[in-house]
Design goal:
Blueprint: H1 3-24, H2 36-48, E1 53-58, E2 63-64, E3 67-68, H3 75-80, E4 86-90, H4 107-119, E5 123-127, H5 146-150, H6 157-172, E6 184-187, H7 206-223, E7 229-235, H8 241-245, E8 256-263, H9 267-292, E9 295-303, H10 311-320, E10 327-330, E11 335-336, E12 342-343, H11 354-362, E13 366-367, H12 369-375
Parallel strand pairs: 1-4, 1-10, 1-13, 4-5, 5-6, 6-7, 7-8, 8-9, 9-10
Antiparallel strand pairs: 2-3, 11-12
Helix pairs in contact: 9-10, 10-11
The structure holds beta-D-mannopyranose.
Length: about 375
């Protein structure tokens, strides 16, 4: 072979090897056996950080203010003509064999909503307000010793394993049209620096929580063979990096890191405080995420009944627009109770902030369903 031809083939080989390497260079989530759709989602979420912030809504397809279980309906869609990009659902009461969850969503319907969200190309995240396994009461029963009781060797360990089996069964039913598992961002033991849940701040030691987290991930991944999860760690409001890391289970145990935040104080002062708090926390979160190669997100947020008519653009967007976070998910539109009380975080037609929510939707960097469908989040690209 002449020297020229040899050099040509050598060059070709180098180019091809590099191309193969570049196209294969995918980051893996903490589950090294994650399905290809889950790996694709993980990598695409990372890429999407440069495009904008996905908008999420809890129970969006299940119910809204004044309606329940209407096929195709969504409070986000009612206002914008588009669905959210991220869909949150809740597993509470699955562990005690109830057919309906803690927020009145039947689990079989929930599976349908999850399939629909996936077919639309959206992202699914699951929270779990699981009962207290020691006392049998709710997640809000902070009986001391609960976490210790479900760790290996604890009196409720077998019970906890049986609860995880039920979660695994539920997850195994989540399949797309070609039989592939639907990737889910699983967000257990949320708000763990608050004191209201049995896994909260003063109700177990950091070591116990970390052990519980490690056991939960290992059990789902290695014993029940669930490989379509990304794991999200999230606190409530936090004041410093130390505060954020108080019960952090470690880099090998989380894919997404976030926090939950609600505005509770109204008026100009409340708005300014909310903007400053979010801005500060996001700056810290992004720094942590960059250093640890994790995906940052606001895993829950809201301003109950959104009384401020320009809240979406003048407060929320102001606070988050300059940050690189994957998504921000607002909480559920439970609606009005017979006693006149209400729980909703997203406006509905005629509500004070409805017009402004449409403005927020129109912002170039707020991403809703139509934006993410184009991104084909479950395909490697
Ligand atoms: C809380 C409230 C409750 C709900 C719970 C679990 O923040 O929305 O009404 O039951 O979350 O989703």
């Amino acid at each position: 072979m002449s020297k020229k031809i040899y050099s040509f083939f050598y060059l070709l080989l180098v180019v091809c090897t590099n191309l193969i390497f570049i196209t294969r260079a995918q980051n893996l989530p903490i589950d090294k056996k994650a399905t290809k759709e889950t790996v694709a989602l993980y990598n695409n979420l990372e890429k999407l950080l440069n495009k904008g912030i996905m908008f999420g809504h809890q129970d969006d397809l299940a119910y809204g203010v004044g309606w329940k279980y209407v096929e195709g309906k969504s409070d986000v869609k009612e206002l914008t003509g588009d669905y959210p990009a991220v869909y949150g659902f809740e597993l509470g009461r699955l562990e005690i064999d109830q057919l309906v969850n803690i927020d009145s969503v039947p689990f079989d319907k929930m599976k349908g909503y999850i399939r629909k969200a996936y077919e639309l190309g959206g992202v699914i995240t699951l929270s779990w307000h699981l009962n207290n396994p020691l006392t049998g009461k709710t997640a809000w029963d902070p009986a001391s010793g609960t976490v210790a009781s479900i760790l290996p060797g604890g009196e409720k360990h077998e019970l906890y394993k049986s609860w995880l089996d039920k979660v695994a069964n539920f997850l195994s039913d989540l399949k797309g049209k070609n039989g592939e598992y639907i990737p889910v961002i699983f967000r257990p033991f949320h708000e763990l620096n608050g004191n209201w849940f049995w896994w909260g701040k003063d109700h177990c030691t950091p070591e116990e929580l970390k052990q519980l987290w490690h056991f939960t991930v290992s059990y789902l991944r290695d014993s029940t063979n669930i490989h379509h999860l990304l794991y999200a760690y999230n606190t409530d409001r936090f004041t410093s990096k130390d505060d954020y890391f108080f019960k952090y289970p470690g880099d090998k145990w989380t894919d997404i890191i976030g926090f939950d935040i609600y505005q509770r104080k109204g008026g100009a002062e409340g708005n300014t405080q909310f903007i400053n708090d979010i801005d500060k926390m996001l700056t810290t979160l992004e720094e942590i995420a960059r250093g640890k190669n994790k995906i940052p997100a606001i895993t829950e947020f809201g301003y109950g009944s959104v009384p401020d008519s320009t809240w979406w653009t003048n407060v929320l967007w102001k606070a988050i627009q300059s940050h690189k976070i994957s998504y921000a998910l607002t909480w559920r539109n439970a609606g009005f109770q017979p006693d006149g009380s209400a729980e909703y975080y997203l406006p509905f037609k005629g509500q004070a902030s409805a017009e402004n929510f449409i403005e927020f939707y129109k912002e170039q960097k707020t991403l809703f369903q139509k934006d993410v469908t184009k991104e084909k989040l479950y395909i490697k690209n």
